[in-house]
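Appendix B. Chain record.
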Amino acid sequence: MKYTEAQELTDVQELTDAQFRRLTGVKRSVFEKMLSVLSSSHAEKKSRGCRPNKLSVEETLLMSLEYLREYRTYFHIGANYGISESYAMRISSLVGWRRR
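Structure tokens predicted for this chain:
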């Protein structure tokens, strides 16, 4: 099943704290801190000028954490987020958490 960005983020926001940690492997407070660091980095990168991303910063972080938690293939993650396998791999490497 393919989710849209709005559906995915809404579904995650409705999870309890325990369910959120089961999904991502981190507490919401840690997720928020990670998101603020990633957002500032993203804003700095965008200030230099580049194409708009297909995924929001929140989705990028969520996708990377889900990958680390579940070790699903990039094909499956891409299908879930409506992006290609290669783009999912590229996002994971940009966040810096790609498994080697």
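Further analysis of this model is presented in Appendix C.
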